[in-house]
Amino acid sequence: MNPRERVLCAFGHKVPDRVPFNMRFAPDLARKVGEAVGETNLEAYFDYDIRFVRYATDQETMDFSKYLGDLPEGATVAPWGNAHVKGTFHHFLRRINPMRDLTLDDLDDYPWPAFEPKIDEMRKQVEDIQAAGYAAVSNYESGSYEQACALRGQEQFLMDLAGDPEFAEALLTRASEIKARKAAANAKAGVDVVWIGDDLGTQKALVFSPGMWRRMIRPPLQRIVDAIRSVRDDVLIAYHSCGHVEPVAGDLADVGIDVLESVQPEANNVAKLKALHGDRLAFWGTMGAQSTFSHGTAEDVRVEVRERIATMGKGGGLMLAPAHVLEPEVPVENVLAFVDEIVTI
After folding, report:
1. Does residue 319 lie within any of the structural domains?
2. How many C-beta neighbours within 10 Å does residue 63 have?
């Protein structure tokens, strides 16, 4: 099998010749791994089974100064208007929220981005990736909930959900309309997998109750999924969430999600997810980024790879990956062991 065939086989709940995989690195760790292997292009060196497609648009950043005020030196403004500045720890950023003081009446005047797609440019990326034998996956696009948190601030938006549902619903609806257009454009460009998501969980529970999720967060997600399916019914849809997602995993399958990512083992019983939902959901991730990779040995990583393949990969339905970006404390030996165990098992 070539990598694309391997990914489509696994995500189609069939058993590939070997489990597909990928990784993401924090900049400092990428540098250390690159120095160790003598190669800066780690995607090519490790030969991941997927490649990402950049969303192509001529979108220009609008004038958000009315909403952001005076920005600190070095601040960067995103196309949605949320800004960020470098934090004090590694690559983490501090957010500045343009909608923190807005009311429902202010939403109509906000300079919402258009993100008109350049489909031909995106399709060329897809064709090049697939011609090289790899699965084409759209760059991650956060969902309506994450976008609302970026615009409003997470604490404030959670208060909106509880105390001002009319505002929260209006903001989620506006965001989902734009997200739906972007997701549909990726499907139109021919990607194999559209990758969307929201961080729904803490380490121990959902951020909100399952009832709140179903009432407020699920409808805009359904709108995005429906937009994708209106373009291509056969495209795979992967959904990212950090943290504990067990209470709504079945709902995600009901919405039309095909692949659950990142399946964080520190926050979920991954074997339970497979047992309960493995007939409808494939899994991407499952390896302990904050546990085994960060604090285990190379042999611990190898053992976890074998265990995941035996359980989560039984009957297909698995692409192995660390459940998040690998941070600088991860030993290079653990990265090398992860790949070696997969390709030689």
Report:
1. yes
2. 11
Q: Which domain holds residue 239?
A: 3-59+116-143+186-204+220-344
In DSSP terms, 271 is beta-bridged to none
Q: Please tell me the total number of residues recorded for the chain in this structure.
A: 345
- Give me the mean pLDDT over the 128-154 stretch: 98
**How far apart are the C-alpha atoms of 243 and 207, rounded to whole Å?**
9
List pLDDT tens digits, range 80-128.
999 999 877 777 788 999 999 999 999 999 999 999 999 999 999 999 9
Helix locations, 278-327, DSSP H: 294-295, 298-311
Q: Does any domain span residue 192?
A: yes
Rg of the Cα atoms in the chain: 20
* 249 close to 281: Cβ distance less than 8 angstroms: yes
Question: Is 338 within the bounds of a domain?
Answer: yes
Q: What is the distance between the alpha carbons of residues 244 and 67, in angstroms, rounded to a whole number?
A: 34
Q: Which pair of structure tokens corresponds to residue 293?
A: 């990779």
Looking up residue 252, the CATH number of its domain turns out to be 3.20.20.210
What pairing do the DSSP bridges indicate for beta strands 50-53 and 135-138?
parallel
Asked whether residue 156 is assigned to any structural domain, the reply reads: no
**Domain total in the chain:** 1
Q: Supply the pTM of this predicted model.
A: 0.97
pLDDT above 80 (res 24): yes
Q: In whole angstroms, give the CA distance from residue 81 to residue 65.
A: 9
